Prior knowledge:
This protein is mainly beta. Among the domains are: 221-331, Jelly Rolls; 332-440, no CATH class; 449-493 and 526-644, Jelly Rolls; 647-678; 680-856, no CATH class. It has five helices and 56 strands. The strands form eleven sheets. A nine-stranded mixed β-sheet has the order 8-16-10-14-17-19-25-22-23, with no helix packed on it. A nine-stranded mixed β-sheet has the order 35-43-37-41-44-46-52-49-50, with no helix packed on it. The relative contact order is 0.05. Residues 818-856 are annotated as: Disordered.
Amino acid sequence: MVSCVFPVLVGLILLQIHKISECHKIEVTPDSGTIVTFSKKPGQGLDCSVCKDEGPSQTCNSILLKLTEAQPTTVTFNCSQPGDIFTVEINQEIDCSTISCIIAVHPDSTRFLEFTRTFTWDLKVQSGKFFQLDFPSLGMRQIKPSESCPDKHTYSITTYQRTGPANIGTFCRNGTISRVQVLYRGRVTLEVAKGTDLSPSDFKVSMGPTATALVEVDVKLPRGPFSADFFTPNYATGWYNEEKIRWNFAVKPMHNFNVHFQQYTAPECQRKTVSCDYALGDKPPFSRTPKDNQPTNEQGDFSLTLANCDAKKVATVPGLSLNFNVKVFRSGTPYLCTVDLRNEEGLSLQIENKNPESYCEMSLNSVMQEKIVVPAGTKADLSFLDCPVQDLQLTATKVIDCPSVSARDITGTSLIIPTLDSSLPVPLHQFTWLLRVRDQGTVDLMAPKGNLHQSLPDKQCNERVSMLISETEGSNIGQFCSTAESTIQKIQIKGNVSITVIPKNTKDLSQEKGPFLKVAISPEITENVIYTVSPLISGPMYLATPNWPDGMNPTSSVSWVVYVPQDYKAELLFSNVSKPKCDTGHTEVEVGPLDSQGQTQSWREDQSFPSSVIQQQSFYLNMSNCEPKSDRFAVLSNISLQKETKKFLGIILGVVGVLLLLVIIALIAVCVIRKRKNKPKTNRSSIYMPRGKPFLPGNAGFTKSRADNESHVYASIEDPTMYGHLDKNQPSEVDNGAWTNGHQVDAYRPFTGPSDPVSVATDSPADYSLDRRDGDAFQPFLNPPNTFNLPRPRSPLISQGSLGFEDRRMMDNTLNTFKSGGEINPIRLSADESRLQPQMDSDSDSYPEAEYDVAV
């Protein structure tokens, strides 16, 4: 017997320990003025209870626990899953009896997640007033009492009247109801399902105006087409009280509305009848019965007031129940057109309303659309209602499937905007070509005339249109146009390409008839993009990496082939460089000549770029990106051409040398002239020679010294000449050499000619002229004397003064007079005698004096 009782006792002890281990404990601190109540669900967990506090002061209850004090309290459940058995209600009373009372309601969002939570707010205002509930911009949507909200947040409004409580309605978030006003007293309830994070719609409580109905609901209907349902209080059980309910509807402009009673249950009236009163703008109010046709195709804001009769309240007799629907839709006459794209291969259209505030309604084949898309190769009927042209935007896209390189290229194909249907009420805002390449080919893009220019901050495209060129993966290469100073001859892009024409100074692209680009297909390239450029001599040319300034795609590359004109050199500057921190690989910039014979230069992201790079000939510039870890790789550079001077260096040096030589010669000439002017002048005497020519003694006869010539050697010397200085009767001037003026002279021979009286010759500047001509006629050096019967013959100007010269006309003439007239017949000395010809002294001036004829 003992052996049987012991196991039972052990089992009871273990069961008790298990129950204790299954206890659930939470800490609760109610807010001030808030009551927290834990209530057991009907028919759930009869063996589970809730306890307050711990130790000897602990109190437990199997049905209900209410916490009213704003202090920390320990709540214990003797079951492991109390959320399946108990619910939590958080109640707050709000007394808003003053006009200035405005209270924002926001329930706690963090506590009691494991329970089904019910938040209640008991509201009270002055008697005869409305308490007013203002909901946020999203508003509320009324549903049937049997329905639930998709987000598991269900609101309900209850009013307390003398006849008893009445359920105004059940609501979900995100609807058209912006305000609810209820007479005097009521309650707002928010029920949140177990395990659902609380995300409530805050609302404001205030005291409204004097009540004219039991309930007044404000509704803001959105743009059509739209419809919403509304229900009378106590919709499930019926409404018996003789009260009024009013709905105020705000309708958008250019909209019509229809009112339709979908479900109506008539009460058994003891006094009065059920009526529907309408107020519509400036129109007079009018009434309808629930069984009449309600207003349709009306415009403007309106209100509907439903007045119940004094219904018989019996369990078997239903009360008033009404479910009605309000539908709004656009008014006006739409513009209709048809678009046929079956004759234009690959062309599609898109039309979009860019003004969300407008009341534009667009339809495609009678179906309302926010954005109309007409696929390629289709025909569509379009409708536009109240759509201003300036609010609409039309874009077109044309897909071109390029043939493979092996088949045949499409060199010379031009991109031209096709003609669109003239019935379209919208101007063409943008046109895009999608070039799809087969066999991994390359798209070559060229300007129809001239070259292309890339639009950059320092030099943007200001032409009528520009072209945005992108890779189909979404990376922009750049924006380009064709200008007078364009430098890009060709752009090569690997793979598919998107080209979008954007208007700059035109409103309708369909008016642009000319070709925009020429397209060709070439074999695949190693880089993603290759530019072929020819810089201008007039100014710098800018080079920007693809997608500037946002940076190149990871592991992508770009190259520029730069052609430098002859006799020029190029200066490459890296004006703006953004370097990334590479995760894999390195960025690299490489510059080298095209002929692959010169030296290349390269830099990575961890190296500093030079300020400038000089290239003497055509070259290439290549840039490749790494797999960036952070930042981006973007480079803006520019190229300037400079005139090459090395081929003209010899000419320039020669010219400089000639100029320098002329300067030196001029300096020497100046110095010599100065020296002559500063040289002391010797006294010169003239000798009168009858029937001869006067001359100035000095250096004129002998330019050499006596030591250098044989002018002092004579065949015979006369005594007077040899010993004349011993003659005391001779004048002292002859003896001391004054007569000779210090010059070396030959022996004196006395003149034995006739002693006829001859007038003294007068010297004049004209007599010393070497060459006096009247036109081409020869003028003698001196006028012939009167004693000669014949005119004086002409004599040589230079040879006459030489020792090697002798005139035959004076031969055998003792007086050395001319025997006959005629031309001078000189007789040259022998070879030995010719050595005795007088020459210019070595120390004489560079400019010898004029020679004079000496008659001996």
